[in-house]
Write a structure and sequence with these properties.
- By secondary structure, this protein is mainly α.
- 51% of the residues lie in helices and 0% in strands.
- α2 runs antiparallel to α3.
- It starts with a helix and ends in a 24-residue tail after the last helix.
Length: 63
């Protein structure tokens, strides 16, 4: 899985993260994506509003 994560651009990783939340995929998968986001030091709280879904907090849970 780690090799696949490395091949994703940061934007595709972020898109995959939010899409997986919208699609209500497995929590473990969402956590893997979030872990990779954190490893890359991507602050998803500071993304432009068009990318960031406002009803999702940083831990991947709906508010």
């Amino acid at each position: 899985m780690r090799i696949m994560m490395k091949s994703l651009s940061s934007q595709r990783l972020i898109d995959a993260y939010f899409s997986s939340i919208d699609l209500k995929l497995e929590k473990e998968f969402i956590q893997l994506l979030l872990l990779e986001i954190k490893k890359r030091n991507i602050n998803i709280d500071k993304l432009p509003p068009c990318t960031l879904k406002s009803d999702i907090n940083f831990e991947g849970e709906r508010e």
